[in-house]
Amino acid sequence: KMTLIPDIATFSVSVVSEGNKVPDVQKMNTEKMNAVQAFLKESGVDKKDLQTTQYSLNPRYDYPICDGTGKCPAPRISGYTLVQELTVKVRDTEKLGDMLSGVTDKGANTVSSVTFSVDDEKEARNAAREEAIAEAKKKARDMAKAGGFGVGRLISLYEDQGNFPQPMYGGRGGGVMADSSKASAEVAPSIEPGTQDSTVRVTLTFEIAD
Q1: What pLDDT score was predicted for residue 187?
Q2: How far apart are CA 154 and CA 141, in angstroms?
C-alpha cells in the first residue's frame, strides 16, 4: 500500500448569463469567461490545462394561463440562458484557494467538482511493487518453514492490475453557487489535497523443494 500526496487539482468553473436577446447574452457571457481565463493564465495555469466542456444556449419560455375554455395560448420565448463551463487543471495546488475565489471576482457564478490526483505515480508504484514482492517471498519462506518443506524456484509472478486508487482525504469537491462580488473574492477558501492511497498486489508461485 502506498500513500501519495496529490499534486494536481482539477475544478470546473461556469459563467451563466441571461438576457432577452441572443447577441447580448453571448457578448455578456464571452466577456466574463474571457476575464476568467485571463485571470487563470495570469495565475500560472497553462493554456493546455484549460478546456471548454460546455457551451449551451437555451431559450426560456413563458407559459400563459389557460382561459378556461380548453384553449391555451402557445408558450412564448421570454429570454435566453447561456451556460459556458471551463475545466481547469491546477499544477500548483498552493494557488488553488486563490483561484477558486478569484474566478468569481471575474464574473464566474458557479465553481464545482474540485478533485485531486497524482500526476505521475510510476516511481511510487515501482517502490511499492518491490516491497510487495519482498513481502511475498518472506511469506513463502515462513510458510515453508512452518510446513517443513523448502522453497524452490519462482515459476510465476502476477500483478493484479484491477485496483483503483482509494478515496482521497482532505479537500472536498461539490458545487458552489458563487457570489461574484469583490468582497467574496477577498477571502480565499482553504482547500487541502490530503493524501491518496493506492495498493499494489502481487502473487508469486514457487516450486516446493525438499
Answers
A1: 63
A2: 12
- Which residues are CB-contacts of 92 (< 8 A; sequence separation ≥ 6)? 44
pTM: 0.65
Q: Which residues sit opposite 86 in a β-bridge?
A: 13, 52
Query: Contacts from 189-194 at CB under 8 Å and sequence distance 24+?
Result: 189/97, 189/100, 189/101, 190/97, 191/9, 191/93, 191/96, 191/97, 191/100, 191/114, 193/5, 193/6, 193/7, 193/9, 193/93, 193/116, 193/168, 194/5, 194/6, 194/116, 194/168, 194/169, 194/170
Decide: 201 and 163 in contact? Cβ < 8 Å: yes
Position of cell 482547500?
191
CA gap 197, 2 in Å, rounded: 6
> Cell numbers of 154, please?
519462482
pLDDT at 196: 76
pLDDT digits (tens, 9 = 90+) for 17-50: 999 999 999 999 999 999 999 999 999 999 999 9
